[in-house]
Amino acid sequence: MQKGDYAAEFLQNHDLAFTLVSTANFAKVVNQRTRELSRSEEKYRVLVESSHDLIWEMDKQLRFSYISPNVTTLLGYDS
User: Fold this and answer.
1) Bridge partner residues of 58 (DSSP)
2) 0.90 exceeded by the pTM?
3) Which residues of the chain carry a pLDDT beneath 70?
4) What are φ and ψ of residue 72, in 5° steps?
């Protein structure tokens, strides 16, 4: 079977309309999840940036990967 035959066989064995609807539904779900993630990230960013506490994150090598902006106010360091 040649390369072009695989595509023809796929279209014969599968309903193209179903495939297109499934793709559209998948894109809709991806867009919805992306919006939800953006809202969640914004919520936690505002929470961290407005906190009076020092908040940090370290990687597995114990290097700082994030330090909240108020490090300057609390410790006098630039983040």
Assistant:
1) 64
2) no
3) 1-8, 10-21, 79
4) -65, -45
